[in-house]
C-alpha cells in the first residue's frame, strides 16, 4: 500500500482548492451541520410560535417564510449534502479507489453550495421577504402571487441542483469505473450500492426540478402560461412536474440512510448482513417504483378515479421492498452477538422509528382515507418520522461510527449515549403528538390554531426544544473528539467492522489506495 | 455506443446527456403529454380549444342530460358575467345553443378570456363545442355589454352513468397581456 | 375458535372507539356524521390496526434479540446470512395483506367519486382569505355570500380571552339540509385553496380556472367546522369553514330569509344613510375585511397605513378605485366584487373619518354605484 505523498496544503487555500475526497467530504459534512443548525433555528421559531394558540412572536406572513425556508434548508442544505459528504469520504475507501473519478468537478460541486444558500438566505432581507409558499412552492402562489425574491429562490435552486447533478455523475463514474480488481458489483458494500442507485435517481430527476423552476421563471418574467389558467395553462401541471421530482427525491434522501444502517448493524451484531442480494434488489425496486407513484401527493386535486386508483396501488406496493429491508436488518441482528455503542443505538432507533413512519406512509397511501389526512399534521408527523428519525438518525450513527476512522480519535461514549437518549425522547415528544392533532383536524402550515389542539402543540414544542438542545451536545462531542479525543489504537476501531475502509491506518491517511488493494475471499 | 475511449469520460458524457435530456423532457414531453392527455381524456375538465365539426348522427331522444352553466370572475375581473340560462335539458346528439351575458362597467376598453372547465372531468371529451366565446379573447369597450354565444353537442357516447354535466367558465382580464403583445409587434 | 372470537370482539371494541381522547384531547379521526365518513373511519382503523399488529410482531422479534442475543451474555454470533425461502415468504405475505387492504379502499374511493343525483348544488369559491358560497338555482337567482373569519383580532393578538370556537367561527356559515345529497362545485378566485370539513369527510382542492366536484349527505343536524387545507398565503390559517346542517324546514325558511335579505340589500343601495349609520356599518366591515392588514388603528402592517394616508385624505374617486379594483402586484385585492355598494360606501366613509382622519366625507351607496359606472 503506497504511502508516499506530500501532505495536504496549508491555510485557507487548502480548503478552497482541494481535490481530495476526504477534504471535500469533511467540508460537505461541516457545511451540512451548519445548515442543520440554520434549518433547526427556523424550526425553533416555528415551534415557539406554535407553543400556544394566538400570535405571540411573528406575523403570519413571516411564519410562512420560516416554514418554507425550514423545509428548503433541511432538505437541500442539511440532509442531502450530509450524505454526499459521507459518499465522498467513504466510497473511494470502500471500493479501494484513490479518490473520486472527477476530483476537480468534486471541488466545484461543493463550493457552489455556500453561495447558493447565501442567495437563498439573503431573500429574508429582500423587499417582500423570503419565499413563503412552502418548500413545495405550488403555482400560482409561487408565480403570480409571489414576492420578488422568488427569482432568487429559483436561481438558488438551479445552483443547488447543478451541485447535486455533478456530485451524482461523479459518484456513478467512480463506482462504475474505479472498483478494485475483484470487487464485482455484488461484492460492493451496500452503502456503495445505495449511493449508486441514489445517484442515478438524482441524475434523472434533479433536471426535472430545474425544468419546473425554469417554467416558473418563464411564467413570472416572460409571459408564458404554463401554470396559469388565463393563458390556457394549468396549476395542476406544476404539481405533476414537481412531484415527479419530489417523490424520487424522498427516496434520494432515504436510500443512502438505508446504506449506512446496512453497514452498521452487521458490525455491532458481529454477523454479516442478512440477504445481501435481496437488499440490492429491494433498493433497486424502491428506486424504480419511486417514479410511478408521484400523484399520491395530489389525491385531493380532482384527478379522475382511475388515476387515483393507479397511484394508490403503486404506492401501496412500495411497502413490499421496504418491508423486506426492515426484515433483513432485524434478521441480521437475530442470533448475533449484539453490543450497543452509540452508532448501534441510533440504528436501532432508526429501525423502530423509520418503521413507524413507514406504517403512517402506508395509511397515507390509502386514497379515500387520505382525504382526511392530506395537508394535516398527520402528514407532517409521517415525514418527520422518516426524514429525522430515518435519515438524520442514520447520518448521526454514521458520524459516530466513522469519526474515529476519519480523525484517529474516539468520541466520548457516555456523552454519545446521552445524546442518543435525549434525541430519541425529544424527537418522539415533538412528533408523536402531531399524529393526534392531524387526525383531530389540524391543518399544516398554519401559524395559529383552534383551542382543542393546544395541549399537544405545547407538548410538541417542548419536545422540539429538547431535541434541538441535544444537537449542541453532539457538536461538543464531535469537536472535543477531533481536538482532544483519546487516540484510537486499533485500525479496525470496532471489532465487528468489515470493509476496506477498516483495513487502512487510523486516522485515514490523506491519500489511500493509491495502489489498488488485493481483495480477500469474501467482501460483501 | 462509446462516447469516449476513456471509460470515465464515457460514463460522464452519457450521464451529462441524460441530465440534459431529462431537463428537455420536462418541456418537450411532460407539458405536451399533459395537454394531449387532458384534451383526449378530458382529464381536469379541459375541453378542446378548437371548434368541433359536427357529424350527422341520430339524436338520442331516450336520454336527457342536464347541462348546468356557471360563470365566475377571476381575481380583479370587474365585469358582470352570467349565463342566460343556468341549466338546460339536452338530448345527446342534438345541437344546442345558449348565450352568456357580459358587461364591462368600467370606462376603459378591456379584453377578457373565458376559460372553460367541465365536471365530471371524464365528461369533457364528450362535450363538443361547435362555437364558443372561449375560443377567442373577448374585447369590450368601456360601459358596454354583449351576449356571447355557445353552441354545443353532447356526444351520444357519453357514459350512461353521467346525468349532469357542469360547464364552468372563469373570466380572466387579459387586457394587459394583450397590450404587451401589441406593443411587442 | 374461542381465541378467534376474543380477537374479533377486541377488534370490534377497538373499532367502536370513535374520536378517542387523552383527557379532553382528541387523538383519533372521528367517524363524523355521514355514511361515507364512517366508511373512511373504518378503513383508517383497519389499516392502522393491521400496522399495529405487524409492528408488535416485528418489534417483538427485534427486542427479543436485543435482550437475548447480546455479546455481554456471552453468545457466539451465528453467521447465517441468506435464505431465499424466507425472502420469498416476506415478500409474498405482505403483498397479500396489501391486496386485502386495497379491496375496501377501492370500493370506498368509488363511492367518494359518485357525484350523481344531488338535490342541491353549491358553488364554493376560495378567496384569499375567505370562502364564497353560492346556492345554484335554476332560476339564476342564486343566494350567494362571503364567509369570513369572525374571531376578533383582540383574541388572536392575546388582548382578549379566546372564545370556544377560536379560529373556527365565521360571520355567515354554509347552511344545508340534512339527509339531502348536496353537490359541491369547488373553484378558486386567485391561488389554490382546499375546502375541508373533517366531520363530513369532504376535502377538495379549489383551483383557479378549474372546477372540481364532490358531494355529501349529512345524517345529523349540527354545526361542523373545518379549515382551508392548502397553503394560500399569509392568512391561510384564518379562513375557516362552518357548516350548519339543519332540517329541511329550517333550511327552506333560511333560504327565504336570505333571498329577502338580498332583495333588501339591493333596495338599500338606493337609500342614503346618515354618517353615524355609515360609520357604524363601516367599522364592522373594516374589522372583518381590512383590519388584519391595515391595523386596528389604521396604523398599517402588511398593508399601508390608513391613518393620515394620502389616499384616505385625498381624492374620493382615487380612494374608491383602490377599494374596488385593488392594487395590481400587491396584496391589496379588488373588493368591488366582494362588498356590496352599501358596505363599500360604509367602509370608505369609515376610513376617511376614523383614525383621526376626520375628513367629514360621506360616501353614499349610490356614489359607489355611479363611480363603478365610470
Concise structural overview:
Chain A is mostly helical and 524 residues long. Chain A is built from 16 helices and two strands.
List the helices and strands and how they pair.
The complex is a heterotrimer of chains A (524), B (185) and C (374).
Chain A: H1 11-17, H2 21-49, H3 60-95, H4 103-111, H5 113-122, H6 150-177, H7 190-221, H8 235-269, H9 276-289, H10 305-317, H11 319-333, H12 342-365, H13 367-373, H14 377-407, E1 409-410, H15 413-440, H16 454-484, E2 486-487
Antiparallel strand pairs in A: 1-2
Chain B: H1 7-41, E1 65-73, E2 80-83, E3 87-90, E4 95-104, E5 110-119, E6 127-132, E7 138-140, E8 144-154, E9 164-173, H2 175-184
Parallel strand pairs in B: 1-9
Antiparallel strand pairs in B: 1-3, 2-4, 4-8, 5-7, 5-9, 6-8
Chain C: H1 2-15, E1 21-22, E2 25-26, H2 35-68, H3 84-112, E3 120-127, E4 130-136, E5 143-147, H4 153-156, E6 174-177, E7 182-188, E8 193-197, E9 202-206, E10 212-216, E11 222-228, E12 241-246, H5 248-268, H6 275-289, H7 291-294, H8 310-313, H9 316-325, H10 341-353, H11 365-372
Parallel strand pairs in C: 3-7, 6-12
Antiparallel strand pairs in C: 1-2, 3-4, 4-5, 7-10, 8-9, 8-11, 11-12
Helix pairs in contact in C: 2-3, 6-10, 10-11
Number of DSSP E strands of chain A: 2
Structural class call of chain B reads alpha+beta
Oligomer: heterotrimer
Strand content of chain A: under 5%
Amino acid at each position: 500500500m503506497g504511502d508516499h505523498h506530500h501532505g495536504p496544503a496549508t491555510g485557507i487555500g487548502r480548503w478552497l482548492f482541494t481535490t481530495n475526497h476526504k477534504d471535500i467530504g469533511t467540508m460537505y459534512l461541516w457545511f451540512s451541520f451548519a445548515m442543520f443548525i440554520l434549518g433547526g433555528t427556523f424550526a425553533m421559531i416555528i415551534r415557539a410560535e406554535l407553543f400556544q394558540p394566538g400570535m405571540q412572536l411573528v406575523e403570519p406572513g413571516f411564519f410562512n417564510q420560516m416554514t418554507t425556508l425550514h423545509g428548503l434548508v433541511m432538505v437541500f442544505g442539511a440532509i442531502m449534502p450530509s450524505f454526499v459528504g459521507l459518499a465522498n469520504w467513504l466510497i473511494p475507501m470502500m471500493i479501494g479507489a484513490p479518490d473520486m473519478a472527477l476530483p476537480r468537478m468534486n471541488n466545484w460541486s461543493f463550493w457552489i453550495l455556500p453561495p447558493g444558500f447565501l442567495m437563498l438566505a439573503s431573500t429574508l432581507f429582500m423587499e417582500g421577504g423570503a419565499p413563503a409558499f412552502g418548500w413545495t412552492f405550488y403555482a400560482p402562489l409561487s408565480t403570480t402571487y409571489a414576492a420578488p425574491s422568488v427569482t432568487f429562490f429559483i436561481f438558488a435552486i438551479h445552483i443547488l441542483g447543478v451541485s447535486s447533478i455533478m456530485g451524482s455523475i461523479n459518484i456513478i463514474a467512480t463506482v462504475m469505473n474505479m472498483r478494485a480488481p475483484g470487487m464485482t458489483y455484488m461484492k460492493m458494500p451496500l452503502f456503495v450500492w445505495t449511493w449508486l442507485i441514489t445517484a442515478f435517481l438524482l441524475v434523472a430527476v434533479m433536471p426535472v426540478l430545474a425544468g419546473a423552476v425554469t417554467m416558473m421563471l418563464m411564467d413570472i418574467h416572460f409571459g408564458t402560461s404554463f401554470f396559469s389558467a388565463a393563458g390556457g395553462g394549468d396549476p395542476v401541471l406544476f404539481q405533476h412536474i414537481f412531484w415527479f421530482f419530489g417523490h424520487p427525491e424522498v427516496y434520494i434522501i432515504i436510500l443512502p440512510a438505508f446504506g449506512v444502517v446496512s453497514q452498521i448493524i452487521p458490525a455491532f451484531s458481529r454477523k454479516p448482513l442478512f440477504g445481501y442480494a435481496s437488499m440490492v434488489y429491494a433498493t433497486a425496486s424502491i428506486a424504480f417504483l419511486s417514479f410511478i407513484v408521484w400523484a399520491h401527493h395530489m389525491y385531493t386535486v380532482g384527478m379522475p378515479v382511475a388515476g387515483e386508483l393507479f397511484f394508490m396501488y403503486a404506492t401501496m406496493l412500495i411497502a413490499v421492498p421496504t418491508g423486506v429491508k426492515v426484515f433483513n436488518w432485524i434478521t441480521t441482528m437475530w442470533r448475533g452477538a449484539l453490543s450497543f455503542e452509540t452508532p448501534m443505538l441510533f440504528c436501532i432507533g432508526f429501525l423502530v422509528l423509520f418503521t413507524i413512519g413507514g406504517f403512517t406512509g402506508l395509511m397515507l397511501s390509502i386514497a379515500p382515507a387520505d382525504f382526511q389526512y392530506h395537508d394535516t399534521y398527520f402528514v407532517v408527523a409521517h415525514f418527520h418520522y422518516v426524514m429525522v428519525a430515518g435519515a438524520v438518525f442514520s447520518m448521526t450513527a454514521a458520524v459516530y461510527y466513522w469519526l474515529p476512522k476519519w480523525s484517529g480519535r474516539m468520541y466520548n461514549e457516555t456523552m454519545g449515549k446521552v445524546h442518543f437518549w435525549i434525541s430519541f425522547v425529544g424527537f418522539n415528544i415533538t412528533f408523536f403528538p402531531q399524529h393526534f392533532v392531524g387526525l383531530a383536524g389540524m391543518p399544516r402550515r398554519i401559524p395559529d390554531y383552534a383551542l382543542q389542539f393546544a395541549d399537544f402543540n405545547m407538548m410538541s414544542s417542548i419536545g422540539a426544544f429538547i431535541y434541538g438542545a441535544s444537537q449542541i451536545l453532539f457538536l461538543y462531542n464531535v469537536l472535543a473528539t477531533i481536538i482532544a479525543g483519546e487516540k484510537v489504537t486499533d485500525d479496525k476501531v470496532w471489532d465487528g467492522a468489515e470493509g476496506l475502509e477498516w483495513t487502512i491506518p487510523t486516522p485515514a491517511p490523506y491519500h489511500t489506495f493509491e495502489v489498488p488493494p488485493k481483495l480477500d475471499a469474501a467482501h460483501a | 455506443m462509446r462516447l469516449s475511449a476513456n471509460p470515465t469520460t464515457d460514463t460522464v458524457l452519457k450521464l451529462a446527456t441524460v441530465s440534459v435530456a431529462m431537463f428537455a423532457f420536462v418541456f418537450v414531453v411532460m407539458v405536451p403529454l399533459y395537454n394531449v392527455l387532458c384534451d383526449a381524456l378530458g382529464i381536469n375538465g379541459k375541453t378542446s380549444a378548437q371548434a368541433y365539426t359536427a357529424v350527422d348522427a341520430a339524436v338520442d331522444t331516450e336520454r336527457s342530460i342536464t347541462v348546468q352553466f356557471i360563470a365566475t370572475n377571476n381575481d380583479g375581473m370587474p365585469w358582470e358575467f352570467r349565463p342566460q340560462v343556468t341549466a338546460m335539458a339536452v338530448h345527446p346528439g342534438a345541437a344546442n345553443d345558449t348565450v352568456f351575458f357580459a358587461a364591462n362597467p368600467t370606462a376603459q376598453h378591456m379584453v377578457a378570456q373565458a376559460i372553460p372547465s367541465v365536471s365530471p372531468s371524464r365528461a369533457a371529451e364528450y362535450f363538443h363545442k361547435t362555437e364558443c366565446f372561449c375560443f377567442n379573447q373577448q374585447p369590450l369597450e368601456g360601459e358596454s355589454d354583449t351576449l356571447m354565444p355557445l353552441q354545443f353537442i353532447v356526444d351520444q357516447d357519453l357514459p350512461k352513468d353521467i346525468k349532469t354535466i357542469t360547464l364552468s367558465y372563469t373570466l380572466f382580464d387579459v387586457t394587459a397581456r394583450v397590450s404587451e403583445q401589441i406593443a411587442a409587434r | 375458535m374461542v381465541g378467534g372470537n376474543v380477537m374479533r370482539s377486541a377488534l370490534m371494541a377497538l373499532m367502536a372507539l370513535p374520536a378517542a381522547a387523552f383527557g379532553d384531547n382528541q387523538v383519533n379521526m372521528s367517524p363524523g356524521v355521514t355514511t361515507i365518513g364512517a366508511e373512511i373511519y373504518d378503513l383508517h382503523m383497519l389499516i392502522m390496526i393491521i400496522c399495529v399488529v405487524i409492528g408488535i410482531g416485528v418489534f417483538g422479534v427485534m427486542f427479543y434479540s436485543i435482550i437475548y442475543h447480546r455479546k455481554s451474555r456471552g453468545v457466539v454470533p451465528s453467521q447465517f446470512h441468506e435464505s431465499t425461502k424466507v425472502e420469498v415468504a416476506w415478500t409474498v405475505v405482505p403483498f397479500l395483506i396489501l391486496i386485502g387492504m386495497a379491496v375496501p379502499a377501492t370500493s370506498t374511493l368509488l363511492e367518494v367519486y359518485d357525484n350523481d343525483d344531488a338535490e342541491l348544488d353549491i358553488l364554493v369559491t376560495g378567496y384569499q382569505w375567505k370562502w364564497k358560497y353560492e346556492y345554484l338555482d335554476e332560476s339564476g337567482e342564486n343566494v350567494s355570500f362571503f364567509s369570513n373569519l369572525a374571531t376578533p383580532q383582540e383574541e388572536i393578538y392575546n388582548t382578549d380571552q379566546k372564545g370556544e370556537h377560536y379560529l373556527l367561527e365565521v360571520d355567515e356559515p354554509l347552511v344545508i339540509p340534512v339527509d339531502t345529497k348536496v353537490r359541491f362545485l369547488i373553484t378558486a378566485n386567485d391561488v389554490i385553496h382546499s375546502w375541508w370539513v373533517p366531520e363530513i369527510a369532504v376535502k377538495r382542492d379549489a383551483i383557479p380556472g378549474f372546477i372540481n366536484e364532490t358531494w355529501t349527505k349529512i345524517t345529523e343536524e349540527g354545526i361542523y367546522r373545518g379549515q382551508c387545507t392548502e397553503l394560500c398565503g399569509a392568512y391561510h390559517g384564518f379562513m375557516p369553514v362552518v357548516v350548519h346542517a339543519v332540517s329541511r324546514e329550517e333550511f327552506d325558511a333560511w333560504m327565504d330569509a336570505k333571498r329577502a335579505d338580498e332583495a333588501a340589500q339591493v333596495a338599500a343601495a338606493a337609500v342614503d344613510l346618515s354618517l353615524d349609520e355609515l360609520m357604524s356599518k363601516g367599522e364592522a366591515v373594516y374589522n372583518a375585511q381590512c383590519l388584519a392588514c391595515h391595523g386596528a388603528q389604521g396604523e398599517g402592517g402588511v398593508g399601508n397605513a390608513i391613518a393620515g394616508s394620502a389616499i384616505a385624505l385625498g381624492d374620493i374617486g382615487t380612494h374608491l378605485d383602490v377599494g374596488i379594483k385593488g392594487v395590481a402586484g400587491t396584496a391589496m385585492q379588488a373588493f368591488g366584487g366582494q362588498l356590496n355598494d352599501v358596505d363599500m360606501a360604509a367602509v370608505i366613509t369609515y376610513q376617511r373619518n376614523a383614525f383621526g382622519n376626520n375628513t367629514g366625507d360621506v360616501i353614499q351607496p349610490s356614489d359607489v354605484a355611479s363611480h363603478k359606472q365610470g
